[in-house]
Amino acid sequence: MATSVEGLPLGQDRFGDIYNNDPGVYEPECDWNEDQGGYPDTQQFLEQFQAMQEEQKKTELLEAQQAAESAAAEIANLPLKGDYQGLGGPQSVPLYSPKAFERPEQLPQGASILSEIFMEPTVDQIKAYKRVIIKGKVCENKNRLKTTIFLHYTLVFLIISKLMPEILDKVDIFILEVEELFVPKPYLWEWCWLLSVPVTFFGLSACNKSNLIPIRRFMIGILVFSLLPILVGMGIHGSQVYSFLVLDMEERTEDIIYWQGYPYSVLWYAFFFLALQVHCYELYFANCLMKAWMPVIKKTE
């Protein structure tokens, strides 16, 4: 009899009892074969899990259908569901009503959204709002008045340039270049119009101090020393302008004065056109400021 190295029979060692004796425990691996997709217990679990998922999907689909039907029934019962739909709003928000934006006859007592929406401003709030509006308009009219006064100074520069030969003759200063221009003699209204220069200082003072008295003096001075001389000058040069523009050479009864090849009276009317606009705007902006600064007289019952 063949024996192993350790003295045991061949094919048997000290662990032979453990290897050869079957304990009788069920092992599912023994039932597995290649044709089967998996172990018996695993296949059963997958089938149960798949059946459970299908049942859950059916339940969810049924609940969603019931919710959609109930929502459609609620929308169908809304009395004004189509009024707001034309404005691009949702079908389920009936916001339109004939008196939606009118003040209700009776507001609820205490704090509520209606009392905040239809809250009327107090008298002090209205006065404060009007003061802010008036202050902004006054500031704007001040800037506009200063601009027209600057344009007034531009016209003053033109008049002084025209009167320069006469001024130099008054002070006995002879300049050949100036004398060779042959500027016509000035009229009285031209000297009177220069008196409007000091008047502009009243307008600037009124803009700086917001005072009513200087603005009144400014308006009176513009009327007397600016507009009145301009109207007188238009009357003096009106006949020559009419003869130059309307009448023919044979129909003219007076000679038209020319300076540097241009009709003298037509040049003056170009100046009158600019001066009238400047003085009218000065009066308009000054009148706006005067109304804003006018004291409010309270009516007594």
Characterise the protein shown here.
By secondary structure, the protein is mainly alpha-helical. Helices cover 61% and strands 1% of the residues. It has helices spanning 16-20, 40-76, 113-117, 123-170, 176-179, 188-193, 196-209, 212-245, 264-293; strands spanning 258-259, 262-263. A two-stranded antiparallel ribbon has the order 1-2. Strand 1 (258-259) and strand 2 form a beta hairpin. Helix 4 (123-170) runs antiparallel to helix 7 (196-209), helix 4 (123-170) runs antiparallel to helix 9 (264-293) and helix 8 (212-245) packs antiparallel against helix 9. The longest helix is centred in the middle third of the chain and has 48 residues, at 123-170. The radius of gyration is 53 Å and the shape is elongated. The termini are far apart. Residues 1-6 and 83-94 have low confidence and may be disordered.
Q: Brief description of this entry?
A:
It is built from nine helices and two strands, in the order ααααααααββα. A hairpin with a 2-residue loop joins strand 1 (258-259) and strand 2. Helix content is 61%, strand content 1%.
Q: How large is the share of residues in beta strands?
A: under 5%
N-to-C SSE string, H for helix and E for strand: HHHHHHHHEEH
* Main sheet record: 2 strands, antiparallel
Stretches with pLDDT under 50, minimum 5 residues = 1-6, 83-94
What structural class do you assign from the helix and strand content?
Answer: mainly alpha
User: Into which percent range does the helicity of residues fall?
Assistant: 55-70%
Got a strand count? 2
- CA(first)-CA(last) distance: 149 Å
Please give the order of strands in the largest beta sheet: 1-2
Q: Report the radius of gyration as a whole number of Å.
A: 53 Å
Overall spatial form: elongated
Mean pLDDT reading: 76
Number of helices: 9
